[in-house]
């Protein structure tokens, strides 16, 4: 069978691959990650951003990032604003540290540009090796717990308490919809239903209508032109980017995005024939470049960091092996723009199940953590614990890295820490002293 120009563009080999399989894989990937179209606007709107504009930015940035992966890297992966990174944007940068969402968008833009430079200069290995392996696993676990905590808090399952700081909330219709979502998402995931989180969100949104949780506007139509991105498009505030705090923030965003992308690419391909005999991912540089450009485009549109989604593994499991899978997924994100009214109808309670399940998935990394060495486990524990207790991904990562470097230094094992991490530790100490 002759290979067409399009097939060459997306790395499709008609001798070993089937178009039907690639299309099915693309649809599967979209269904498994389409919950982001409801969850991301819900999370970022907490900062005061226009929910409709964020929806359009989310769908468009996801489509562009995914298509970049298809044509640059020719790999069956998809991109969208990352879970954890959107929580960092909303609940740490804006609501926690008091920056405007316009400043937070400028930080994401700076991250994307730095990521592009790092990738083009081939220095990603030095950046990755700066953070110890156990701390990388701890970051994944901590971010997962933080995301789940946000879902429980937003739905009223967890509330503040003057005596104990937090407590279980009262039994309300909102919390009931959230509990239904948690149970339903767990059941559907256990049954292996493709798009389980997406279907859970839709079902809980529908259940919420008679319960008064979902507000159905008059003359509701499920299809319409996508909302304008004007309220968020290129709304940057660069004034605060030169501070030590913001330098640390931007570098954290780079680290998280880089680790997430590399971990996703390696993890999803590990059980396929796509990796070479040395365990290397083909066209890794191009995949990272697509991720970096996707983040930059996402910031311009008005959304948080765009990253490669681990849910892509669902499409790969269906047989997706080329960029054609990504073309299908990216195309479906464009189609989803027409269904904005449905996604914008979703209440916070309906997304709780998805947030909790994402937290459950991210707990998987805890099995890889080394628990026999206290100089490793104490920083891991600090990273996870303080992400949740301080309600800040940044604080958890900072305290984890600082404690790691200090413990290794004071126990005479200073050679186990990179120079870069020592420099970061000094900067972090200065940050806590002067801010």
Automatic annotation (TrEMBL):
InterPro entries: Azg-like, Azg-like_bact_archaea, NCS2. Pfam families: Xan_ur_permease. One of its GO terms (molecular function) is purine nucleobase transmembrane transporter activity. The chain crosses the membrane at residues 21-40, 52-73, 80-99, 105-123, 135-152, 164-184, 196-216, 246-268, 331-360, 380-405, 417-434. One of its GO terms (cellular component) is plasma membrane. The keyword ATP-binding does not apply. The keyword ATP-binding does not apply. It is a multi-pass membrane protein. Keywords: Cell membrane, Membrane, Transmembrane, Transmembrane helix, Transport. It is found in: Cell membrane. Its main location: membrane. Belongs to the nucleobase:cation symporter-2 (NCS2) (TC 2.A.40) family. Azg-like subfamily. This is Guanine/hypoxanthine permease PbuG.
